[in-house]
């Protein structure tokens, strides 16, 4: 509608009149609509970035910066790249293909998408065929010819697929596994898994009355005998007749299938089962949407809180499809499976309550490893030997195991145990088999930094990489000669790609980038696809042949953005006075900065979100609006500091776990050092410093203002956590254990417990539809501040916003308030 009106040159009011809506109510409605359209156009139109930035410009629809390529991956023949682009707020993505040799990318039509080389897929042993799932259906591609065959066309989605060792294709839907025989095309049901009680067999009468009925009533006895004969016939037929599918598996009605993995020969299915009543939410966990489409308040389901969530762990079951037998996998083969790893924590909490805790060994709850970044399975089969390795973690977050499974006995053997007194990282868990060997490769933080290890059967692990840097994103080369990886060897904030020889351990650097990047190795192993950025340059795609020169493939950053002279923040190391290593930070200096001027500068410290996130790096920040806001602040005479406080990513295990059971305290110490550094090195008035941040950054803003009230003169907390007992279990239980076990840690780390310390102006801003940090978090803190009779806070709510704001108008309103707060309190 808007596009048609703009093209015709007619206003909404004119359209209303021409359409016969000349009555006053329609005219008023049209005027309101026209006004609304103009406001939205002002917010979303590409800004004309001039010498002086404005909030309207930098908080506008980010499409003005360029619609960048996302999710890039290689074609099967390594000659082209596929990627997607999606305008801000657009409901669908557009997909593209671009030749590595250069030229313009071609947008794919809808009818071409199923035939486009898919990012995810599995290959047969000789890598002649690729099987993949598209829109829930199964396809097979002959790589030599490019011919594609669709194997299913149905509304029930295919959930997984694999090639078997003889070349047949197996796939599964829900809990049913199928096999397609390549020689005959026969479609076979390998296993039908029913999470239900097994139907009873024909039973002989047991009670007196039943026996009497069968003895006295001939018809009843005949029915019983016939039923028994039919059952025996069916059992015998299923054993001897090869044309009949195998019987269903009945595994009880108390659990549900969490994961399913089929062996390479198709003879075994490994299942992970979980309590069927366990859910990601409780019945009362709802989030009210006050602007429901029907005019009413909608109750939107929301996740459970860590104080109530109680993950039950998972149970492993092995199904032998040849013998139709099942084996429950015991966890006794896991080293430390029954250790009381929280004994000290429980004793400390018991002592506070005037009680005594007695430690006892008991089996711990275990589950398949849930890495937050990988795309692989926690169950890895050795294709040629039909062996399986499983990565498991304790629900208490203290242990990670890689174990092999004896398929005959159903017993696990620990190949590697990673124990951490704080918590095992939910990143850096990639692992697998080296082809045609019994050797495993994996990532581990056991030395304090994530590194690559090789584990030979019966021997101690050997490191392939060593040093005070972080290794991530490992890729086994197509011939298994090298393991490729990303690491920040040169500087914690600079990424490059390396490879290490599996046999010799020789290591070589493949890229010479000076920012941040992600990489994908081409299928032929000859080139790297890079998604790379610098401090003032958003991510673009690059191609680099192994041993060759890097070549830029895309240029989707807009001219308007590129032409503006953005300030590239300096990355500095702030000395710690609290026993930590240097704290890395980005520094933005005021335009026309004069280190000797008599009037000292005001300053702002930005606190990044997520806690475990790195932002003081040499790449383009994911906080692109904040990056532009910081440029604006420098134009207004502020120094801006953006710190990777303790707990941040990129600096190793000890930095990550420094906040264990003590969130918000080491970080505030780092902020104190940040203020001191600016006063000593950037001519900042330590009495004119403010702070702000969202999510974890909002939490940290609270903790700074509540526990160190003289440190900052004002703070703004966006979508902030106020009470960790109300946050989710997967994140919080890592760092603080659980409230029932470690109430000390929660009371020590939750801002609402320290709210009485507020003395300086505070701005609290939350989205009502935030299903990550609930709006209720802010509501509870506001009431607490009211009851504490604290007059120095204000709130702003955003009725349509989730955790990550979507609407430009909301972003603009939010940052107008932040800017106003700093202008009022710091100058």
List the helices and strands and how they pair.
Blueprint: H1 2-8, H2 12-18, H3 24-44, H4 55-58, E1 70-74, E2 80-85, E3 94-99, E4 106-107, E5 122-123, E6 129-134, E7 137-142, E8 148-150, E9 160-163, E10 169-173, E11 176-180, E12 187-194, H5 208-216, H6 218-240, E13 249-250, E14 255-262, E15 268-275, E16 286-289, E17 298-301, E18 315-320, E19 325-328, H7 343-352, E20 366-368, E21 379-382, E22 387-394, E23 399-406, E24 411-419, E25 431-433, E26 440-444, E27 451-455, E28 462-463, E29 471-476, E30 482-491, E31 494-501, E32 507-509, E33 516-521, E34 527-534, E35 537-545, E36 551-552, H8 559-563, E37 570-574, E38 583-588, E39 601-607, H9 624-635, E40 639-643, H10 653-656, H11 666-681, E41 684-694, H12 696-707, E42 714-718, H13 729-736, H14 743-749, E43 762-767, H15 775-787, E44 793-798, H16 808-826
Parallel strand pairs: 12-13, 39-40, 39-41, 41-42, 42-43, 43-44
Antiparallel strand pairs: 1-2, 2-3, 3-4, 5-6, 6-7, 7-8, 9-10, 10-11, 11-12, 14-15, 15-18, 16-17, 18-19, 20-22, 21-22, 22-23, 23-24, 25-26, 26-27, 27-28, 29-30, 30-31, 31-32, 33-34, 34-35, 35-36, 37-38, 38-40
Helix pairs in contact: 2-3, 5-6
Please provide a written account of the structure.
The protein has an 8-stranded mixed beta sheet with strand order 37-38-40-39-41-42-43-44, sandwiched between helices. Strands 9-10-11-12-13 form a 5-stranded mixed beta sheet, with no helix packed on it. Among the domains are: 68-207, no CATH class; 570-826, Rossmann fold (3-Layer(aba) Sandwich). The two termini are 47 Å apart. The protein is α+β, with helices and mostly antiparallel strands and 827 residues long.
């Amino acid at each position: 509608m808007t596009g048609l009106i703009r093209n015709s040159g007619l206003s909404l009011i004119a359209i209303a009149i021409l359409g016969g809506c000349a009555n006053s109510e329609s005219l008023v409605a049209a005027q309101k609509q026209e006004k609304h359209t103009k406001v939205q156009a002002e917010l979303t139109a590409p800004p004309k970035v001039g010498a002086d930035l404005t909030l309207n410009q930098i908080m506008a629809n980010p499409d003005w910066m360029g619609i960048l390529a996302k999710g890039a991956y290689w074609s099967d023949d390594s000659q082209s790249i596929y990627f997607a682009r999606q305008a801000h707020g657009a409901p669908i993505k557009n997909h593209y293909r671009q030749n590595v040799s250069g030229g313009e990318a071609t947008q794919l039509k809808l009818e071409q998408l199923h035939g486009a080389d898919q990012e995810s897929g599995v290959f047969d042993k000789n890598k002649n065929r690729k099987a993949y799932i598209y829109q829930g259906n199964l396809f097979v591609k002959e790589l030599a010819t490019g011919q594609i065959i669709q194997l299913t066309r149905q509304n029930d989605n295919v959930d997984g697929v694999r090639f078997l060792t003889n070349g047949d294709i197996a796939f599964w839907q829900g809990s049913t596994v199928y096999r397609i025989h390549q020689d005959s095309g026969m479609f076979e049901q390998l296993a039908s898994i029913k999470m239900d009680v097994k139907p009873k067999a024909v039973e002989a009468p047991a009670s007196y009355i039943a026996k009497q009925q069968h003895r006295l009533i001939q018809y009843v006895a005949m029915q019983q005998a016939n039923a028994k004969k039919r059952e025996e016939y069916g059992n015998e037929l299923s054993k001897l007749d090869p044309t009949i599918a195998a019987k269903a598996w009945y595994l009880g009605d108390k659990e549900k299938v969490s994961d399913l993995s089929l062996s390479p020969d198709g003879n075994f299915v490994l299942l992970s089962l979980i309590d069927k009543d366990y859910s990601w939410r409780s019945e009362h966990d709802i989030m009210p949407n006050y602007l429901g489409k029907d005019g009413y308040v909608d109750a939107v389901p929301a996740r459970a809180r860590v104080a109530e969530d109680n993950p039950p762990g998972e149970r492993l079951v092995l199904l032998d499809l040849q013998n139709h037998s099942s084996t429950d996998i015991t966890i006794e083969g896991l080293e430390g499976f029954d250790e009381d790893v929280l004994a000290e924590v429980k004793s400390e909490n018991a002592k506070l309550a005037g009680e005594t805790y007695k430690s006892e060994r008991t089996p711990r709850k275990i589950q398949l490893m849930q890495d937050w970044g990988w795309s692989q399975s926690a169950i890895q089969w050795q294709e040629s030997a039909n062996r399986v390795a499983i990565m498991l973690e304790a629900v208490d977050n203290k242990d990670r195991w890689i174990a092999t499974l004896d398929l005959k006995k159903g017993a696990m053997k620990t190949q590697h145990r990673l124990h951490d007194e704080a918590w095992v990282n939910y990143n850096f868990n990639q692992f697998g088999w080296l082809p045609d060997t019994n050797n495993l490769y994996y990532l581990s933080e056991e030395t304090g930094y994530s590194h690559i290890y090789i584990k030979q059967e019966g021997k101690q692990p050997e490191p392939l990489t060593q040093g005070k840097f972080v290794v991530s994103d490992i890729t086994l080369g197509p011939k298994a000669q090298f393991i490729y990886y990303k690491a920040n060897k040169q500087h914690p904030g600079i990424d490059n790609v390396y490879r290490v020889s599996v046999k010799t351990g020789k290591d070589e650097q493949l890229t010479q980038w000076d920012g941040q990047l992600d990489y994908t190795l081409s299928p032929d192993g000859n080139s790297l696809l890079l998604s790379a950025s610098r401090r003032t340059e958003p991510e673009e795609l690059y191609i680099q042949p192994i041993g060759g020169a890097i070549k830029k493939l895309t240029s989707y950053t807009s001219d308007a953005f590129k032409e503006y002279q953005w300030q590239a923040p300096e990355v500095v190391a702030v000395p710690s006075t609290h026993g930590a290593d240097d704290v890395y930070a980005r520094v933005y200096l005021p335009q026309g900065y004069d280190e000797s001027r008599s009037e000292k500068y005001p300053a702002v410290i930005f606190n990044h979100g997520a806690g475990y996130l790195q932002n003081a790096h040499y790449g383009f920040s994911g906080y692109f609006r904040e990056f532009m806001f910081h440029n604006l602040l420098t134009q207004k005479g502020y120094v801006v500091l953006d710190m990777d406080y303790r707990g941040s990513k990129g600096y190793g295990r000890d930095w990550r776990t420094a906040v264990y059971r003590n969130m918000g305290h080491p970080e505030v110490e780092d902020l104190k050092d940040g203020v001191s550094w600016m006063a000593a090195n950037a001519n900042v008035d330590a009495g004119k410093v403010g702070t702000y941040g969202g999510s974890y950054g909002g939490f940290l803003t609270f903790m700074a203002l509540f526990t160190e009230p003289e440190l900052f003169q004002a703070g703004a907390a966006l979508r902030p956590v106020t009470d960790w007992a109300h946050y989710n279990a997967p994140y919080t239980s890592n760092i603080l254990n659980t409230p029932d076990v470690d109430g000390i840690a929660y009371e020590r780390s939750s801002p609402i417990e320290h709210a009485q310390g507020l003395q300086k102006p505070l701005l609290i801003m939350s989205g009502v539809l935030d299903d990550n940090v609930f709006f209720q978090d802010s509501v509870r803190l506001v009431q607490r501040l009211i009851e504490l009779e604290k007059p120095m806070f204000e709130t702003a709510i955003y009725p349509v916003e989730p955790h990550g704001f979507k609407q430009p108008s909301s972003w603009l309103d939010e940052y107008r308030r932040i800017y106003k707060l700093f202008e009022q309190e710091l100058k």
